[in-house]
Specification:
Blueprint: H1 10-26, H2 33-52, H3 61-80, H4 86-94, H5 102-124, H6 130-159, H7 164-168, H8 176-202
């Protein structure tokens, strides 16, 4: 079934409206305005790419919903800074953790939520055999996560070195970047395991 034209896709309209409302709410008195601006670079770039490529490659509404959930988590983290997000403190107190782990949650969610959309690209645009997508998607998530950690560090240095600690959210952990990438990979593996099980149950052909 061909994708709906944008003007007729009510689900996508609702998702965009939700993100605009959440963005407006989180733009009001963020904990650190300069950090909020840096964090929102990701949102602007992400949104622009999805808008510019909509006609050439339209994701399923499920994928757009997964993107929306991930960006929602990111917007909340950008408002508070990842190290000061209340949900992270609740997890820290509830599980007696040594630090605020909201950033870890978002990195795991990146793999968990973005793996399925990546798989759509491989299946529909690259023509990859279904059996190969599970491995390739997990590898892509790991690679993109590692590249993002490098870009994040470069941006922090070039744009505002004083914001390094807040923007990177390392909280004194020298292995923060490696742990973040590992969690993203773990999220992707979990997503692909669930997808493989679903495919096995409905017995989809290799290139559908």
């Amino acid at each position: 079934m061909p994708p709906l034209p944008f003007r007729d896709n009510r689900v996508l309209h609702a998702l965009i409206l939700w993100l605009l409302i959440l963005w407006a709410i989180t733009a009001v008195e963020p904990f650190n305005r300069r950090d909020w601006l840096l964090e929102n670079l990701l949102v602007f770039i992400y949104a622009a790419l999805l808008a510019l490529t909509y006609r050439r490659f339209t994701f399923s509404n499920l994928s757009y919903a997964l993107f929306t959930l991930f960006l929602s988590l990111h917007l909340i983290g950008a408002h508070y800074t990842y190290a000061e997000t209340p949900l992270g403190f609740w997890l820290q107190d509830g599980f007696e953790l040594q630090r605020n782990h909201y950033d870890r949650l978002v990195h795991f969610s990146y793999g968990l939520l973005c793996a399925y959309p990546f798989r759509e690209i491989l299946l529909r645009a690259a023509g990859v055999r279904r059996s190969w997508t599970y491995f390739l998607v997990a590898s892509m998530i790991l690679a993109f996560s590692a590249v993002y950690e490098i870009i994040e560090a470069v941006v922090a240095i070039l744009v505002d070195p004083e914001l390094g600690a807040a923007y990177l959210g390392t909280q004194g952990d020298d292995w923060d970047a490696q742990k973040d990438s590992a969690l993203a990979f773990g999220g992707a593996v979990a997503a692909m395991a669930m997808t493989w099980y679903r495919d096995k149950q409905i017995k989809l052909p290799e290139h559908s």
